[in-house]
Design a protein that fits this description.
Blueprint: E1 7-9, E2 14-17, E3 23-27, E4 32-36, H1 41-53, H2 63-70, E5 74-76, H3 81-93, E6 97-102, H4 126-139, E7 145-150, H5 159-175, E8 179-185, H6 193-201, E9 204-210, H7 215-221, H8 231-242, E10 251-258, H9 260-264, H10 266-277, E11 283-289, H11 308-321, H12 329-336, E12 348-351, E13 356-358, E14 371-375, E15 381-383, H13 385-392, H14 407-410, H15 417-422, H16 431-434, H17 436-445, H18 447-450, E16 454-455
Parallel strand pairs: 4-16, 6-7, 6-12, 7-8, 8-9, 9-10, 10-11
Antiparallel strand pairs: 1-5, 2-3, 3-4, 12-13, 13-14, 14-15
Length: about 450
């Protein structure tokens, strides 16, 4: 009979107490987010302590021990988890998927005071759009799939270009038997039901729309270029979209950037949104403190920022006290899916209106390291591979990362812009790690409806 000292605990385990004496496990390397029943928690803790101390025999009849082994909470000593995590990282950044984040325009019909963009009145030309399509036509056979993310500016200001390019790109993928997926980030003002259905027809299935609170708060933070509020229009659009048949599957992530004022009015806002959308799983919510994301307008909004670690803790802690059902799928994604920076992926590029290529959509366009290449009008891509390589290379200074339970998720490459743009050695931890316990608490509170945490029965 083998002994416990032939085993070890996975270094990627994160254990925390759940409701009613249960025990919650998170381990990204083995894709575990589950809850052990309370009646087994004492036995589970005894097994974990025994393995850690190498002091007891393996109890073959113990269902709890077998469950811990099957979920790789307890693993054979010879397992090299670091090697497996490194392999996952290599697969993550070299995966056989071509992803273009396309700016149809840099213009925007909003003037949000915390936005880092300058709203230049620049639109993608027909020649640049044709060059992108031509590149895909010539190169799609190298890839398994094509993913297009529409960004801006406000991309729906150029709906005609989105329609034309989508038709052409979908046709290319259909003829070459390649997967085509698409998403859009929009302020929602122009996202009426007809526009939504057109986008859905072009396989846009993921939507990101921002609402920052009830009308009084939202309209002070997300107003139009002519100073008008946008809350009623966006809510009306979303309610119209909600009437679309449930057979049409999509994900509408409603992001809320919470300021000091938004925090004060958070409960009535959550209650209102829960009453409108909690009965439709296609609508989900994510909350963020308003940070300084850069740009030229943030100085005038600085007194309203709910910044820092404590601000986020206060936000998520308060959300947990509220008894209104909410689908927190986006927060689930942050811990369940990889948070490696999209800029690290080898075949992911943001395409500006003039065809210039970057790896990141941040506010550092003036940096000499920001743009890594260009697509010309004939579909030829020119790259500076030395710059591209910097975005995919992990931080050299990874002190503390190698033994961190979250390393299997972010691989210490959550955000690499500071490394490349500012030559910084200071890495950032993702929100999924910083607020892991708060996210899990929110998911657990809503788990009876949305079932993001597996409940184990032994």
């Amino acid at each position: 009979m083998p002994y416990y000292n032939e085993f070890k605990l996975s270094k990627y385990n994160y254990l925390m107490p759940g409701e009613d004496g249960t025990l919650i496990l998170y381990n990204h390397l083995y894709k575990q987010l589950c809850k052990f029943p309370s009646e087994y928690c004492d036995e589970i803790k005894k097994h974990l302590d025994s393995v850690k101390n190498g002091s007891s025999e393996f109890v073959e009849s113990s269902k709890a021990f077998q469950e811990l082994c099957s979920r790789n909470v307890i693993i054979p000593k010879e397992y090299d988890e670091t090697a497996l995590s490194n392999l996952n990282y290599m697969n993550e950044i070299t995966r056989n998927s071509l992803c273009f984040i396309i700016y149809p325009t840099l213009a925007c019909n909003f003037r949000c005071p915390y936005c880092y963009q300058d709203h230049e009145n620049e639109n993608m030309s027909a020649e640049t759009a044709a060059g992108i399509v031509s590149y895909v036509r010539k190169n799609i056979s190298k890839f398994r799939e094509l993913h297009i993310a529409w960004f801006g500016g406000e991309p729906l200001l150029k709906m005609d270009l989105i329609e034309k390019m989508s038709k052409e790109l979908m046709d290319i993928c259909l003829k070459r038997n390649r997967i085509y997926t698409s998403a859009i980030t929009t302020n929602g003002y122009l996202l009426n039901k007809d526009t939504f259905l057109k986008l859905y027809g072009y396989n846009v299935k993921k939507f990101a729309v921002t609402i920052d609170g009830l009308a009084e708060v939202h309209d002070k933070q997300r107003f139009t270029a002519d100073g008008k509020g946008s809350f009623e229009r966006i809510i009306s659009n979303l309610l119209d979209i909600k009437t679309i048949s449930r057979n049409k599957k999509f994900l509408m992530n409603i992001r809320s950037n919470i300021s000091v004022e938004g925090m004060r009015e958070l409960e009535p806002y959550v209650k209102y949104m829960s009453e409108l959308f909690a009965d439709d799983d296609r609508f989900c919510f994510s909350f963020r403190p308003v940070y300084d994301w850069g740009g030229n307008s943030i100085d005038n909004f600085r007194d309203h920022l709910l910044e820092g670690f404590s601000g986020g803790k206060d936000l998520y802690g308060f959300l947990h006290t509220l008894d209104y059902p909410m689908n927190y799928y986006q927060h689930y994604e942050e811990i369940a899916n990889s948070s490696v920076c999209y800029a690290s992926r080898e075949y992911t590029y943001a395409i500006e209106t003039d065809g210039r290529l970057s790896k990141c959509t941040s506010a550092n366009r003036d940096s000499k390291n920001y743009f890594v290449g260009k697509i010309d009008e004939k579909g030829n891509m020119t790259l500076n591979q030395h710059l591209v390589a910097q975005w995919s290379t992990p931080y050299k200074n990874k002190d503390g990362c190698s033994e961190c339970y979250f390393e299997a998720n972010c691989h210490s490459n959550f955000c690499v812009s500071d490394k490349v743009i500012n030559d910084s050695s200071s890495k950032k931890c993702p929100g999924g790690k910083i607020y892991l316990e708060e996210y899990i608490r929110l998911l657990e509170k809503n788990n009876k409806r949305y079932r993001y945490i597996e409940e184990i029965s032994l």
